Each structure stands twice: as structure tokens, then as C-alpha cells.
Amino acid sequence: MKEKDETFENWWLANKQWVLAEDREYSDAVGTYKITSGADWLLFGIPVVTGILCIQYIPIASEVLRWVVSFVVAVVVSAGCVYVKSLSNPHRPIGDIEADVKQRCWEKYQRTGVLEKRRQA
Fold first, then answer.
1. In the chain, is it the N or the C terminus that has fewer CB atoms within a 10 Å radius of its CB?
2. Do residues 89 and 33 lie in contact, with contact meaning Cβ atoms separated by under 8 Å?
3. Phi, psi at residue 25, to the nearest 5°?
4. How confident is the model over 94-118, as a mean pLDDT?
5. Do 29 and 97 contact (CB within 8 A), yes or no?
6. Which whole-number Å values give the CA distances from 115 to 38, 45, 88, 101, 111, in the listed order?
7. Whole-angstrom distance, CA of residue 52 vs CA of residue 43
8. Which DSSP state fits 5?
């Protein structure tokens, strides 16, 4: 496989958003990360509640240090909640889908030599 040339890479950077938006699999995968149910609200509310509880109950004398530790705990819990949400995602990882779409565009460019222009609505 030839390396992707600079013309294609520049086109991809400029047009990536609309090309991906038109891909159904990518749109479906991105849609699963939206908050659509009560369980989603709970998953993303847990870090807030955890942070508030940490501020109240961490036995650190310094107020600033207590806030910093609470923030770090909330960020870690948030990452865990996003991980749990991603486990319930029935789609492939978004990065893999994006790479496949880019590869399809590259192969089409190699066959035709034409870079597709954005369609006007």
C-alpha cells in the first residue's frame, strides 16, 4: 500500500467532520455516548456526588488540599463511569470506525483520483 499523500491528508483534515457525519455506523456509535436514559444520568451523576462527599468527609486539615483531592477522586470516578458506559456500547470503538472510513476514502481516491466535495444541502 502506498503512503497516503499530502493532498489526501489535507483533504481529510478539512473534510473529516462531514464525511464522518454521513457515515451511519459512526453516527450510531457516537449516539450511544449521549445521555438518553435514567441509568446514563446516574452514571454521570455519580462523580458529582462522589466529589461532594469527598469534600465533606476527607480528613485533611487544609481546605485547598481537600478540594484538590476531591476533584481528583471525582475525575477518576468519572473515568470509571465512562468506561462502564463504553462497555454497554454495542458498536466498535469510534477510533476504529473512523480509521475504516478514512481507509475507504483513501481507496476511493486511489481508484478515481478525485477527492469528493461536500454536498450542499
1. C
2. yes
3. -60, -40
4. 86
5. yes
6. 43, 44, 36, 14, 11
7. 15
8. P
Mean pLDDT for all residues in the chain = 86
Among 94, 60, 58, 93, CA closest to 74: 58
Question: Amino acid identity of 117?
Answer: K
Q: Which amino acid, 24?
A: R
Amino acid at 85: K
Confidence of residue 119 (pLDDT cuts 50, 70, 90): low
Task: Report the distance separating Cα 29 and Cα 40, nearest Å.
Answer: 15
Helices and strands: H and E segment counts in the chain: 5, 0
Residue with cell 449516539: 31
Q: How far apart are CA 30 and CA 92, in angstroms?
A: 10
Does residue 22 sit in helix, strand or coil?
Answer: helix
